[in-house]
Specification:
Layout: H1 3-28, H2 31-39, E1 64-70, E2 76-82, H3 85-90, H4 92-95, H5 110-117, E3 122-127, H6 139-146, E4 154-159, H7 173-190, E5 198-203, H8 205-218, E6 228-232, H9 238-242, E7 246-247, E8 251-252, H10 261-268, H11 277-290, E9 298-305, H12 314-325, H13 334-344, E10 346-347, E11 352-358, E12 362-369, H14 381-393
Parallel strand pairs: 3-4, 3-5, 5-6, 6-9, 9-12
Antiparallel strand pairs: 1-2, 2-4, 7-8, 10-11, 11-12
Amino acid sequence: MSLLSVLSSAIYILGVCIAGYFVSLGILAIPFFQNQVIYLHSVTLTWFQDITIPEQWGFLHNQVSPFTLRTADRVTLQAWHILPLDLYHQHEEELVKELEGHTTDITQRLGFQLLRDDPGSLLVLYLHGAAGTLGSGWRPPSYRAMSAGAPGRIHTVALDYRGFGVSDGSPSEEGLLIDALTLVDWALKEAGIPPSRIVIFGQSIGTAVGASLLRHLAARPDPILFAGAVFVAPFADVELLTASYRVAGTIPLLGPLAPFPRLLAFFNKFIVSKWPSKDNLAAFVRHCEEMPGDQQKYHITIIHAQDDYDIPWSHSDQMFWHAVSATRPGGITFEELEEEKEQTKKSLGPAGWVVEHQTSKGLIREEIAKWGLHDRIMSYPIVSLAVLRAFQSRGKLEPDSEA
């Protein structure tokens, strides 16, 4: 075969690949297919497993109570209430005698009563990432990490958003916010837990839901402010993410267009779910900073692993910058803040580094670990300690030593 024939074949194959890529982008402009890529909700990762039997994921018998929540727009969501280990141990004999599996009335379960009736109980509302269900991947180990700092007091309630697992409907930016609001409403009204005893945890797309939730509730005439929020592996917004995001960590979305900003901006216009996390978090901080009084109103921890190949940790830098800038009347440029961070950054050696920004109204903490990937880090002590710090910031847990 001549060199000319080889070049012609190569050009033809390249042309077909480019054409196929742009056809794929055209298909992704259709909201249905776009949702499948952004949320990956059809990829359950728990095939042939019954989500109403949590013991499959290593939980003790009836340590987890599967139940349902009903949203304002009539969507039924699947949820888990996970008891902390020490509390379970104290009531093990009674718990193992209860009926197992899904319940239509969570208030009849002993675990719920232990949450509701104990004035010292604490609650993490858990917003998981894209793909999978309540039982997928590193989520079950992560639920156990939530209570590690106080295994007798910290309960966790997690839900599958609409369209995930056995929950009804299909996901959307508005819909997932409604789901999170439904979870909060359940915690405040049915479980009777005040906001000062609640921490919001989000991972990946759950951080976007969490930031939207914080902003929405802080903007109310009667603001709702929680003990704190812990965001792991966040992204600044979908438009910034598309330039680097790889579906399932392998398939580039709009990355090939990154060298062509105008072309990238053109295709970004077709994205329906924008999830402007950096703007939502900044707006939340600004709301809190403008509220009267000098008592602490927010405690935000942003955690990311440097080896996260799904979402680059530079997104956490963006989140931290926008949050800090919102505390200053004139704002601050990214470059100026990076200079400040170099002066105040605390090295944690092989564990990474941490930097904090504090005002009279609250604290924003960015912690970058060297290892942990995108999901595994959720189960690490760095997260357990962040949850513990958030509760301690409201005086809900007395520190045994300096955290």
